[in-house]
Amino acid sequence: MSFGILNNIPALNAENALNSTQMSLNSTLEQLSTGMRINSGSDDPAGLAIANGLSANIAALNQSIQNANDGVGALQVADGALSQVTTLLNTAVSIATEASTGTVSSAQRGSLDAEYQQILDEINRIGTTTTYNGTSVFTASTTSVFMTDASGTAANSTIGTSVGILSATTLGLAGTALTGTDGTGAQAALALIDTAIQTVANDRGSIGANVNSLQDASAVMSTQVQNLTAAENNIMAADIPAAITNLSQQSVLQQTGFAALAQANSQEQSILKLLQ
Fold first, then answer.
1. Are 213 and 244 in the same domain?
2. pLDDT tens across 73-122, in order?
3. pLDDT in the model for residue 70
4. Residue 227: Cβ within 10 Å count
5. 172 lies in the same domain as 202
6. Does 54 map to a domain?
């Protein structure tokens, strides 16, 4: 067996092994401190790319769910307003029915008509002042609720909702009055009020169908978020029991590595004995 002092190969081998152990130990400690298996691109480049894509999908779906909920909110405001309109029209039915009978005097019929006109004014007011997020609810334009999972244009979708304009004119009641000496005007108005009640009922049914569509879409997207979050977690999350086991192993290797390096360095000291 030959001895030399030019290079200490056993010490170099021990140092390389110790460096490798230290890097593995540092990575394990980082996983335990963050709870994530992938903390940098070098840990798993392909896994990180997939996880980032899933994260973008989740973010887009969560916002799409919020878009759908905002759409539901606007429709529910409209439905609540129409519910109040139905109550007003039911009151108008009672007033018009009373004004239609011949036992009511012209003066009394005039008072009933004044109350009826106030109802029409209130319907117009509801139609113009009901808003959601600062925007008028009752408009002729269609509101498009946009939804996507950010996986491409083919995955984009919209649900269009239209409430329409609300006024005495659109309900066919503009210009109607309960005046007249024989109740004929009130009877004609009564027929139109009945039609207006049906119109409002149909509008509320359409709104309800749109609400159901948005809520169904929201439920589907919520399931997507749940599944994508689970997939992202499987890629990114650290296996804590495995990491703890690895920590114990690397800690032991670190200690034995230090001991091996010290032993390799001490071997050169034995050469000095040959000079004594």
1. no
2. 999 999 999 999 999 999 999 999 999 998 888 899 999 999 999 999 99
3. 93
4. 12
5. yes
6. no
Identify the CATH number of the domain in which residue 202 sits: 1.20.1330.10
CA distance 238 to 173: 68
Out of 84-93, 246-255, 262-271, give the one with best mean pLDDT. 84-93
Weakest mean pLDDT among 115-129, 133-147, 159-173, 213-227: 133-147
213 and 191 in one domain? yes
3-class DSSP state for residue 144? strand
Extract long-range pairs of 56-62: CB within 8 Å, 24+ residues apart: 56/150, 57/149, 57/150, 57/151, 57/224, 57/228, 58/225, 58/228, 58/229, 58/232, 59/150, 60/148, 60/149, 60/150, 61/148, 61/149, 61/150, 61/221, 61/224, 61/225, 61/228, 62/225
Decide: helix, strand or coil at residue 154: helix
**What residues make up the domain containing 80?**
63-236
What is the number of domains present in the chain? 2
What is the distance between the terminal CA atoms of the chain, rounded to a whole angstrom?
20
Nearest to 224 by CA among 157, 143, 145, 144: 157
Banded pLDDT at 248 (limits 50, 70, 90): confident
